[in-house]
Specification:
The protein contains four helices and no strands. It is an all-alpha fold and 133 residues long. α1 (10-33) runs antiparallel to α2, α1 (10-33) crosses α4 and α2 runs antiparallel to α3 (74-98).
């Protein structure tokens, strides 16, 4: 809650920041891949970034839904996570295999989004901990 009485959703702000960074990485990837004759690879990296973003959004929605339930149950969270990750992994494997050699970019994009998300989430916490000590 701020001084104005407005409640700020820190997680939503961090997701927005991660989204902006991911879009920036995608644009830079396409800008670099084009002149290097790797535009298709760049597109698959952007697809992976998009899948990583989708996974993060679905995870946030699922966690909120389970937390807001009258009787929160871990089993719903486990099942949802398993289905989501199996779908993303299976789809990525199919795309990566069928679009060889450029399809491997989907995995680079997924990994890059995870790194972005961790940096956007963890670094502010570390900075806050340092300021407190």
């Amino acid at each position: 809650m701020t001084e104005d009485g407005i409640e700020v959703d820190v997680n939503a702000l961090r997701m927005r920041r991660a989204t902006v960074f991911a879009i920036g990485v995608g644009v830079l990837t396409l800008a670099a891949a084009g002149p290097l004759d790797g535009l298709l690879l760049g597109l698959f990296i952007c697809l992976g970034l998009g899948l990583g973003w989708l996974n993060a959004q679905l995870t946030r929605l699922t966690v909120n839904r389970v937390a807001d339930a009258e009787k929160p149950r871990k089993q719903g969270l486990y099942l949802s996570s398993a289905v989501r990750l199996a779908g993303i992994t299976g789809g990525s494997l199919v795309v990566g295999f069928l679009a060889r050699p450029h399809g491997i970019g989907i995995f680079f994009g997924l990994a890059a989004f995870q790194v972005i998300l961790v940096l956007v989430t963890v670094l502010p916490e570390v900075k806050e901990l340092r300021q407190q000590s």
